[in-house]
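User: For a benchmark we're assembling, each entry needs the component sequences followed by a predicted structure for the full assembly. Here are entry 17's components. Please fill in the structure.
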Amino acid sequence: MNILVILVPLALLLGLGGLAAFVWSLHGKQFEDLEGAGWRALSDDDIRPNG
Amino acid sequence: MSQQDRAFRDLSTFVRPGKSGTDAMDLAVGGIKCAGCMTAIENGLSREPGVVSARVNLASKRVTIEWMRGRNSPDRLIDRLDELGFAAHPFSPRKVETAEAREEKRLLLCLGVAAFAAMNIMLLSVSVWSGNASDITPETRDFFHWLSALIALPTAAYAGRPFFESALRAIRSGAVNMDVPITLGIMLALGMSVVETLQHAEHAYFDSAVMLIFFLLIGRYLDSAVRRRTRDVAGNLAALRADTATRVAADGSLVDVPVEAIDPGDVVLASPGQRIAVDGLVIAGTSDIDQSLITGETRHVPVKAGDPVYAGTLNIGGQLRIRVTKAESGTLLAEIERLLTGAIEGRAKYVRLADRAARLYAPVVHATALITFIGWLLAGMAWKPALLIAITVLIITCPCALALAIPAVQVVATQALFRRSILLYAPDALERLAEVDTVVFDKTGTLTLPKASLANAGDIPPDVLQRAGSLAMGSRHPLAVAVADAAGRPPVAAGIHEIAGAGVEVQIGGERVRFGSLAFCGAEQDGATVAAQFPDASLIAFRQGGLVQVFAVEQSLRPDAAATVAALKAAGLQTLIISGDRQEAVARAAARLGISDFSGDMKPAEKIAILERLKADGRKVLMVGDGLNDAPALAAAHVSLSPVTAVHLAQAAADGVFLGEGLAPVHAAVRTARVARKVMGQNLWLAVIYNIVAVPLAIAGYVTPLIAALAMSGSSILVTLNALSARR
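Assistant: Structure for entry 17:
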């Protein structure tokens, strides 16, 4: 059961990491326009010939 | 739109100064439908000089543009959007809207936190449950319970606030809403779990408490997202109506300003064919005014210097200078505002289904828990285990399904209405709409199209219509516009000149061709014949040599008006017309729609009186109207709808608006609301059945955290799935 000492904090840290990513994306206005974001992923306009 | 006939537009009120020398502006844009529009707008604007960024929000149909100050102007950017094929109008979000957006963001944040906590605690709980069935040591279990507490307590304190705050508000005002039992359930579950953990017990309910918060937040978030979307679209519609007025500055120059920026005492200019944006007194000019939006009367009223004019009326004849006044007592407007205030106050506070359920539910649940506690004590159990069982009863009955039952349906139904071009502003409008048994229509602008059209097109030779149309193109008179539209907007005749108050004239091959009033064209005789045929129509004539043609222009019924009235009747609803227009005109419209109950010549107060009489007969009235004179009646009715072309005051008094040319949304609204209401009922019954099964188990003391978790998530998913059937 000693493995728990590593696994439990690890699980919590991963979870917290996900939460932090969510909060970051929320404050970065990524949830403002869920409809448009879906289409932007498909758009090729950001590909420029010269990079 | 040509550049010459437009005054300079002052849009500075909409520009937000940004950081590092940029300006930004929000625009409501009409016609954004797909991703293609999005890229077209963004690319088109990005190529403009000085533009730093242009970002379209596809969900709210808005674009935010940021540009280097001085290198571009709002005016120019709007013109550029116009060239790209999109009508845009600057937009400053209202306070309510910003507050709602902030609230939605907070709910989403709470939801994220609750989701994180629920996942992690469930991980620990599953270990404990499987451990309990096999070989977990008490120390490990305690460790897991404490870890759960460490996650659950801060989570509840943070993510549970929307419920706690609402429950506190309800209790302060002496009422009970659904959030009261929710708060109590969460608090008790957490409190008991901490005590149990301290005593090294087998079971703790941290997972139940957090899962409850998670599920309920989903419902809350969906609810607020749909409401915000409705409000966004409504805000766009208001912005795209572009209510601007042309202000005459002291030096005589003309500036187009948003109506909000006009103060009493300002002088504004109203051109022929323009809607007057303000209330005021005419100081110069004479004209005819179409007051149909205000009074329902379709005949035009002559005005001269010194006469009052009202916002929302249409200027037909000549140019007017108007001094802006506030509504004075004794004017039509003041009378309407007085009635409106009365009607809003008189609207009985409607108790929503969810609150009614909560009022019934909370005392029953709390009494059951109390009786359980006393019952076990009487049966000889010690007070501690008895209390434990009583709390379990409260946790298991915590109205997860009940709190989701109604919002979930509301979300689905609102979206269904959205697709059918109906926007409901009032959150309880859906429930009120479902109870309707009588529909009262206004005539002008509601049953009829807001724009006039040619009534006797079938009697006119096509080549005459074409020639008349090319003359009509030279005038902005609404009757002329209707004829020009009917002729398919042909190119305007060369050498045309307007004779004020009479019509337009042109010389073709030495022959004088005229288009205008009957007297101007010498068409009184033909006019009398046409007037007999189309008694509601306004007449305009065309003369070329000996050829005389009279055009009858009238506000025709909406194309699907008769079908909609028939559908409403088939759905068991009684239909009425109450209009401010002349009795004969109303009678003819009623006959064509098959409505036997109608009244014309109605003043706003008389409209309310009819609604009050219907209410006294126990009828639930849906009022559909668009005019200023309808506004008090819209507020007084059980529930009300306005077409999107309605005046501001009417839209504000109505519970919702419908878009488009047709009247079908009125029927769709009632039908969807009835389906939604039925599904809400089903969901409440599902929640009751769940309780009938779960509560006896809890009272008997058989409920473990595992059973609570299964029962809660199971019932929540069940009511959510059932809510989807409100989509029809």
